[in-house]
Amino acid sequence: MPSGRILLKRVSESKKLSELKTDGARLLYSWLIPHVDINGCFSGDASVVNGKIFTRLNKTIAEVEAYLKDLEKLNLIVRYSAKNDIFLQIPDFKEKQPSLRADRERMPHIPTSEQVRSNSSHKLSKVKLSKDADDKHPPELPQKEYKLKKENDCQLVYHYKVCKGFKIDDRSFDAGGAFGRWRKVAKQLLEIIPDVNIAKQCITAIGNKRKYQGLNEWSLDNVVKWAPEWLLEYKSNQEQQKNADIAKMKQKEEQNRLDEEARKEIDFRRKTEDIYKNMTADKKREIDNEISKYLKER
């Protein structure tokens, strides 16, 4: 995959992008483009998107999921399930990338939404034909699907594998006891970072920031080794963000207070002017004399 993609300048005139609810969704769309494969496909899992695209922005999984749903609602992306995982595709990606070179890209491992729909239609047709087939030719039994395990340590192993660019439905994934060993390492990571979503962010961040391990090989063992340092940095960033939010809230409250005082002063002046206008000429002269006397005494 190349180091970047083209972002056409007409993106700033896009009607769909202007209809998105947040700037976060607009940022996600533009930052997503350099990460997709030659078909415009990428992981549709909010935790993976957050880790790989919003690596240093401290976004929550819920925020990223809301951005993805907003993009999906306006058909800027299509999300779909395949191979026991969720993916996304930018529908008009190839039209907006005139310089794509298939010979310079690695073979994409994510199926496109069109392939998934085609396979679904093919399976339905096959089932219909099998009903009309002769009893001598029974239909082939479908292969048993690879069932994902729901335990937190397994989820971390799956997340690590996706970040490495592998397919989690590959039977060879469990071969040779590797999965069992990775589960043990993942459990060690959960002892350091009990929250599975934060642990996923740790795996992605350490994979993206080679400064942690200083090694060419990125493994779960290295993640566990450098997780305490990453966790300190993560907590520091969270604290800074919290303090920044508090400061911003106080600044807003102070501005609201000043605006309210200014509004009250304007109202008072208007009322005073109205009272002054309704006074008799003698009363106005009397007040003016009192004001002049007061100013001289000062």
Widest β-sheet, arrangement of strands: 1-3-2
What percent of residues are in strands?
under 5%
Number of strands: 3
Gap between N and C termini: 80 Å
Strand-pairing-aware structural class: mainly alpha
**Helical residue percent?**
55-70%
Count of discrete structural domains: 2
User: Strand count, sense and closure of the main sheet?
Assistant: 3 strands, antiparallel
Rg, nearest Å? 31 Å
Q: Which consecutive residue ranges, at least 5 long each, have pLDDT under 50? A: 133-146
- DSSP summary: helix tally: 10
Nearest-integer average pLDDT:
79
Helix-strand string: HHEHHEEHHHHHH
**What shape does the CA trace take?**
elongated
Essential attributes:
298 residues, mainly alpha, 10 helices
Question: Layout of SSEs?
Answer:
Elements: H1 15-18, H2 23-32, E1 41-43, H3 46-53, H4 61-73, E2 78-82, E3 85-89, H5 113-132, H6 152-163, H7 178-192, H8 196-208, H9 220-277, H10 281-297
Antiparallel strand pairs: 1-3, 2-3
